[in-house]
From TrEMBL:
The chain crosses the membrane at residues 16-36, 42-63, 84-104, 116-138, 170-187, 193-214. It holds the Pfam family DUF1295. This is Uncharacterized protein. GO terms for cellular component: membrane. InterPro entries: UstE-like. It comes from Blastopirellula marina. It comes from the Bacteria.
Length: 267
């Protein structure tokens, strides 16, 4: 992250940190594996899975971001009066993400030291990872196609996976990291404490840099998003709530049973 920070100073673009986020975990996984004395088969499998996940994410973000200048989130930080952005970005952008990466990747760091064999939990972890990767990849693909259509400018995507969750890519990331934890747990049950990694990732996805942070920005730009929030689950995929009833139907909808149908879906 420090080296990446130096590169960002030369490029005058702090948003490159997003592209290298997934690739950073690939580096952690391979360094941990190659430094281990005798990593087991589960460790090799997990490192390959991390490589697939990290390269897909990094490649997608590079395709989406490169050539468009610095992301406006970082540009706003840079242009704040009186701020030494070089030092600020080292601590708040690159330093903070590096610290989070170190904690989140604990299962990947510990797994190569365990000589675990394949178990039923390994299969569950692999299924969890595969489902998460599918949610991430399909969600990103559907969003990119939606944005590529100029007729959708200012509209809200409410099709495909986005019909059932407002953030299928974040939900997929959630599953991926708990999948890594299950793979580590399958190698040795004493590694249960590495759950702190996916737990921190879950917190970040929901309350720090994920759902809460992104939706605050979207609501200010797209009036339709408020209704999308009302009827669509924020995180866990769930059938959407019933459409808003018209005024003529408001009397019948005042019945408690009808009111429950209009409540927003749970997280």
């Amino acid at each position: 992250m420090f080296t990446l920070w130096l590169l960002s100073l030369w490029l005058k673009d702090a948003s490159i940190v997003d592209i290298f986020w997934g690739l950073g975990f690939v580096v952690v996984a391979w360094v941990s594996l190659l430094c281990a004395a005798s990593p087991g088969p589960v460790a090799w499998l997990t490192t390959i899975l991390v490589t697939v996940w990290g390269c897909r994410l990094g490649g997608y973000l590079a395709w989406r971001n490169l050539g468009h200048g610095e992301d406006k989130r970082y540009a706003e930080m840079r242009n704040k009066p009186g701020r030494n952005f070089a030092l600020f970005s080292l601590v708040v952008v690159f330093g903070l993400q590096g610290t989070i990466m170190w904690i989140v990747s604990l299962p990947l760091q510990i797994l190569p030291t365990l000589d675990g064999q394949f178990t039923a939990i390994t299969a569950i972890g692999l299924a969890c990872w595969a489902t998460g990767l599918a949610f991430e990849a399909i969600g990103d693909y559907q969003l990119s196609r939606f944005k590529a259509n100029g007729a959708n400018q200012g509209k809200v995507l409410d099709e495909g996976l986005w019909h059932y969750t407002r953030h299928p890519n974040y939900f997929g990331d959630f599953l991926v990291w708990w999948g890594y934890f299950l793979l580590t747990l399958s190698a040795d049950s004493s590694a249960w404490w590495t759950a702190i990694g996916p737990a921190l990732m879950t917190f970040c996805l929901l309350y720090f840099s994920g759902v809460a942070h992104l939706e605050q920005r979207i609501k200010n730009r797209r009036p339709e998003y408020a209704d999308y929030i009302r009827r669509t689950s924020a995180f866990v995929p769930w059938p959407p709530a019933a459409p808003q009833q018209s005024t003529s139907e408001s009397v019948s909808s005042s019945h408690p049973a009808a009111s429950r149908k209009q409540e927003p879906r749970p997280l």
